[in-house]
Specification:
The chain has one domain: Rossmann fold, CATH 3.40.50.720. By secondary structure, the chain is of the alpha/beta class. The N and C termini lie far apart (46 Å). It is built from nine helices and eight strands. 42% of the residues lie in helices and 14% in strands. An eight-stranded mixed beta sheet has the order 3-2-1-4-5-6-7-8, sandwiched between helices.
């Protein structure tokens, strides 16, 4: 069977563990050359050792994704190690969960730095490289794959900082897709549901997501999500951009975004007292949104 990512060079952030490590292993098994980015050098080195022992190609990178200048080194290392760059998988993330009334400025800023700014930094440098190639007349078939979350699409109690950052990542993906296609770059996002250190930090979640002992299908295995990521990295996905995919178990779906409804049009300015009736008409016809997680 052919390997769908043969020869593709990809940077994966936060790849020292969890989903990122699974992405790295699956992509390498599909022929990709992987830059395993993680600030934890030992964790990244362990993943690289696993990949190379299995016959794959990978290198360790410890660039800080929240630091713009340092993140350039990940792109430089991809070019120095493998001669090119075809994809960036923005995966790194952390949690600082609190109810909004108890959230601190530090809780907010740290999540925005790792998630939202972290999705900007390496991608920015990669885009500069790809745009330069395009302007030189060289063929570009590049990918940005972002990691959003159901929390960003529907909200999540106790995670207003995380939800806001993940919603921002979904919107960023739409903009990147619209602006970058002219250079041969696609941008898509994935909202994963899988067993990782972040999702199993709560004992109840750890128990629910535990791997089955009978050898049956491991519904929450992170590799289930990695299969989608590998296809998005591959050349086969070149016609797909601006989508937010959901991946859970064996199910892949597309998150359908915000859409304007038919609306109520008076054809003139509404008097403040009239707005009540207009809103009543809108609410009577609306399709209810998915519930906020935790409600």
């Amino acid at each position: 069977m052919s390997k769908i990512c043969e020869g593709r060079v990809v940077i994966i952030t936060g790849a020292g563990g969890g989903l990122g490590a699974a992405h790295a292993r699956v992509l390498a098994s599909e022929g990709a050359c992987v830059v395993v980015n993680d600030i934890n050098e030992a964790a990244a080195a362990k993943v690289v050792a696993e990949i190379t022992a299995a016959g794959g190609k990978a290198v360790v990178n410890t660039s800080d994704i929240t630091h713009y200048d340092d993140s350039l080194n990940a792109v430089k290392q991809a070019l120095a190690s493998f001669g090119d760059l075809h994809a960036v998988v923005n995966n790194a993330g952390i949690n600082r969960d609190r109810m909004f009334a108890s959230m601190t400025e530090e809780d907010w800023d740290l999540i925005m730095a790792v998630h939202l700014k972290g999705h900007f930094c390496i991608s920015s440098h990669a885009v500069h490289y790809w745009r330069g190639q395009s302007k030189e007349g060289k063929p570009v078939d590049a990918r940005i794959i972002n990691t959003s979350s159901g929390a960003g699409l529907q909200g999540s109690i106790g995670q207003s900082n995380y939800a806001a950052a993940k919603a921002g990542i979904a919107a960023l993906t739409l903009n990147q897709a619209a602006e970058l296609q002219r250079y041969g770059i696609t941008a898509n996002a994935v909202t994963p549901a899988a067993r990782t250190g972040m999702t199993t930090a709560v004992p109840e979640m750890a128990q629910r997501m535990a791997a089955p002992e009978d050898g049956s299908f491991d519904y929450w295995a992170p590799e289930n999500v990695s299969s989608l990521v590998a296809w998005l990295v591959s050349a086969e996905s070149r016609g797909v951009t601006g989508r937010v995919f959901e991946a859970e178990g064996g199910k892949i779906s597309i998150a359908d975004g915000w859409r304007s409804t038919e609306g109520v049009d008076k054809g003139a300015r509404w008097a403040p007292a009239e707005v009540k009736d207009a809103i009543a008409q809108l609410l009577a016809k609306e399709v209810p949104a998915q519930k906020v997680y935790g409600t």
